[in-house]
Predict the 3D structure of the following.
Amino acid sequence: MTLPDQSSLTNQHTEEQKKYRLFDSHFHIIDPRFPVVPNQGYLPAAFTIEDYRARTAPFDVIGGAVVSGSFQAFDQSYLVEALKQLGPGFVGVTQLPATVLDEQIVELDAAGVRAIRFNLYRGGSEHLDHLEEMARRVFDLAGWHVEFYIDSRNLPELEDRLIALPKVSFDHLGLSKEGFPALLRLVERGAYVKATGFGRTDLDIPTALRAICAINPSALHFGTDLPSTRVARPFADSEVVLVVDTLGEQVGRQVLYENALALYKPAR
């Protein structure tokens, strides 16, 4: 029997991945032409649009959400430029100060921004004191939802405040096994969750995915978390396969792209 050579196996593996269509609901672009600020002493390496396209080439990426990191603070210049280069299908998730003008929110919406982020885990975003006012303002002006980077262990003390907001989403499966029951309670009450950053959590990923989808299969949306800053185990292509193997083809398709398309409503 003749065994296939390694190049044949690699091509076969690539073709297998190509069938997976993605709306990448969480990734960062780090363009060295634009300012970044140290966060907890950390400065990320560059990760350009070209880097992103090369890294996700094995998949059929139909769009995605460029997320502002703590190290980008309130800078909008990199995000507007990234969305311009990426084109239709891609949206932005930004961080804004409470002093932002209504006109700026409308302008960012026209540029493709679809959500505001509160980074309660790393900082770099506006303080929680401004949460309710800002969440309602961006929703009323532009229909944006609010995204949270938060350890789910901290959710019980904020649960009533968060669920009272118009629309909310949580990054990285909430990070923590200890706080996961609180996250599930919020899903029961209409919250969304990103199936992202698997290497950041102490959760059993298949168990967590099944638990969320058992409550609401429309609540979960996948992202690569590229370039996986400050994480010991960065995104691996096998995570996409894991989602489908865990949830099945139909629900897997929802999680990989259909749910995010409905949530972010990108220009097509």
User: Anything to note?
Assistant: The beta strands are 21-27, 60-67, 90-94, 113-119, 145-149, 168-170, 192-195, 220-222.
